Every structure is written in C-alpha cells, then in structure tokens.
What does this fold into?
Amino acid sequence: MDSVAKSERTFLDMNGYQWTVIFAAWLGWGFDVFDGLLFNYVAPNCVPTLLGLTIGSPEAKAATLQWTGILTSILLIGWAIGGVLFGKVADKIGRTKTLLLTMLLYALGTAACAFAPNMWFLIICRIIASLGIGGEWAAGAAMVAEVVPDKRRVEAGAILYTSAPMGLFLATFLTFQITGVYFNDPAVSWRYVFLCGLIPAAVAFVVRIFVKEPERWKKVAGEQSAKISELFSPEYLWITISGFCMAITALIMWWSCNAFIPVVANGLGAKEASLTGLDALATEALKQQWVRTATNSFNLGGLIGTLLTIPAAKFLGRKKMFFIYFLLSAVSIMAAFGLNLEPHMRLYMYFPIGLTVFGVFGSFTYYLPELYPTRLRGTGAGFTYNIGRLIAAAGPFLVGSIAARGANALDSALDVLFYVGFVPIAGLLALPFVIETKDRELID
It folds into this structure.
C-alpha cells in the first residue's frame, strides 16, 4: 500500500490522495470512451464531406455505413495493439507516466481529425488515437489497484468503470449541442466535435501534477522487464486463460449489442412511422429520438450494472458474479431480440442488456489486475482485456453489410443479435477455467 495511504482515512476507508488517483483514472477512462466514439456520432456528416458527396443523399448514406464499419474496425485493432503495447510500457516506465502519454496520444489524435482534408488523413488520426485509447485502461486500472486498500479494490475498480457510460453520455450531449445548437452547417460542425477531443489533454497535465507513481510499482521498478511471452509460461498460462475467456466473452457481447443500436432503433422507428402514417420529416425525427432512447437505456443500465458488480464480487466472489452476469446477459439478449415485442418495448429492452452486458465490465478494472504480480500487472491486464478486440473487430463489418440491406436490415439485425445470446452461454462453459480472487491480497 502507498505510504500516503497510511494517513487519516476518509470515505470508504480511502484518504484524499487515493480518491484523487481514482478520479484521475476515472477521467482518463471516461475521456478514452468519449474520444473513441465521437466518430460514430459525426460520421453521417463527416464521411460525405471528405468524399465530396451530398450529405443525406443515398450515396452518402451507403458510404457512411461502409466507412463507419471500416473505421470502427480500425479503432478496435488499434485499441488491441495499444492495450498490449502500453500495458508493457506501464510496467516499464510507470503507471502515471503511461497514463499521461496515452491520454495525450488519444487527445491529439482525435483533435487532429478536425483538420482532415480527406479520408486517408482521418484514418491515420484514428489509428494514432486508437493506440492511446487502448493503452490508457491498463495503466489506469493497475494504478488504482495498487494505490487503494486491498479491501476497497472492488469498490475502487467499479467506480473507475462508471466513467464509461458517463463518457458515452458526454459524447451524445456535446455532439447534439455542437451540431444541433451552436453550428448549423453540417459540413463544418463535425470538425468542432472532434476538437472536443483536446479536453483530455488538459486533464492529463493535471494528472501529472497531482498523481505519483504507486509505491508497489516503485519497489519492483528496475527488475527484469515484463515480457508478453511470460503470460503463456507454465506459471501464468491458466491465469491468462482465465482473464482472456471472461474478457473476450464480454467484448463480443458489448460490441455486437452496441454497434447494432442505430440499425435496430432506426428500423423500429421506420416501422412505427409506417404504421402511424408519419411523413418523411416526422419519420426521420422519430428515428433519431428512438436511437437516443435505445442508447440512453443501454448506458443507464450499464451504469447501474457496473455498480452492482461491487456487492456481487464482494459477497459472492468473482466466479459466481461472472455466472450471474453472463446468464442474465443471455436471457436479456435472447428476450430482447427473439420475443415478439412491440417496437417501443424492444427499445427499452436495451436497459436490461446494458445492466448485464455493459455492467459486467465494471469487474475487469479490479479482477484482471488481481491476477498478476506488480511487475507483470500492466502487461497481463492490458493483454487479456484488449487482445480480444482483434476478434471483435470483425463485428463492424458485419453491421455495415447488414445495414446496407435497407428495408431488410432490421430483420437481419434481430436475427444476428438473437444468436449473440449464445456468446455468454459459451462464457459460462469457460467458468471452470476462472481463477477466484475473492479476499486475496494484491500480489507483489
């Protein structure tokens, strides 16, 4: 435990400095998610502008679907590479330095998108940002786990991940304010949205001033450098399998459910508008409203579900917690997309999906750092949490191809999402490999 942690305790047995560390990592991860998803919000205006197409035309819509899939897949691949690379860097140069470096990387990469003259420049900027986005998590999660008291590691980790839905809320709010209130020209407004990516750069410098390297890491600094190959040595192989199986199950579920939200909500909105006889303008407004409803339901469920991992992990243990979340994920996904529900009711089914599919991510910020010793913590947590994104990267291409089917997109999406419900069932089958870390002190 840090020497600064021995001073007077405050809320949840943690002093002011420990809460400062949690808040710094919370901001880092929240803006990580914020920067990562900004492109999705501005793509309908950004893509046609860079390709010289008329915004709102059929050609522009088709191109937007195609390039959103491509750029999201590029994001996930860069995210995976950055997560593995900077996890190792965090073990080499320290948690705080890596957190600063990765935040600056994704902030500058995102802000540079505002000046893109063509699609290739935008791709390069997104690759730069994705490396930082992937790397930030490992540094922040390791830093928090090593600074807070062992008995409060679960609470600190879950609180850290609540910044993810908050980052999504912030991205939605700022995009609406900038493109819908302050700037009326759609060919230009998206550039100002990307400029908001600079916000984390300011936060990064504040982090560097107030947050020190954890004492746990300082004690092992200078020892033999962590190697990714060690994760597959006899000593750590089952540990790596444990973390990887849980993380990849959650990743495939989340990216599948979240990526299809616009397709499903737009399709349901169009269906409802057709039944009620709305004109084209009213139909478009309804579709946008339903996308916001589904997204907010998913995010709110995720926020609550993240916090619920605290009692689940502390009282039941990690294995039972994963069992409950994966079982309920399967039920909520299959019910939402397999049952014959009213269109509006299907939108609100994104709340239980968020509660389980999104909520389970609140556990990885404490579970994965618990698996490895201090000198290997960033490398191990970064690898197991992020490498599965290489597989998840295939999802956006699938979404784009299905969305391009037009009138048939909704039925195709519902069919695909129903079968996504079998992914958490596969995760349940992997539970015998899961290592229980309940009541275990962090390994030095």
